[in-house]
Amino acid sequence: MRILLVEDERKIANFIERGLKEEHYIVDVAYDGERGLFLAEINMYDLFILFYLMKNISPHYVIGKIRLSHILQKQ
Q1: DSSP state of 64
Q2: Where are the extended beta strands (E) located within 1-75?
């Protein structure tokens, strides 16, 4: 299972990443919403973990863009 983790607090992101990798998940980490959007557009993920309080971009915007890009890819 491949997971995209988007969290702007590096210590928290690294802690969660380590735990997920110990459970044998493949984890990509983005430390801001823009990087998360980029990774979501170029990779396929089974799960997104997106933290609600990000400084540079609304998580609702990120989710909407990810949904739209996946809908367009299927057409």
Answers
A1: H
A2: 2-6, 26-30, 47-50
- Amino acid identity at 73: Q
pLDDT tens for each residue of 55-69: 667 777 777 887 777
Q: Exposure of 46 by Cβ count < 10 A (0-12 exposed, 13-18 middle, 19+ buried)?
A: exposed
Enumerate residues 6+ apart whose C-beta is below 8 A from 38: 30
What domains does the chain contain, in order, with CATH numbers? 2-74 (3.40.50.2300)
Can you give the pTM of this predicted structure?
0.80
- What is the Cα–Cα distance from 70 to 75, expressed in whole angstroms? 9
Residues in contact with 59: Cβ distance below 8 Å, sequence separation at least 6, in sequence order: 6, 33, 50, 51, 52
Alpha-carbon span 51 to 65, nearest angstrom:
16
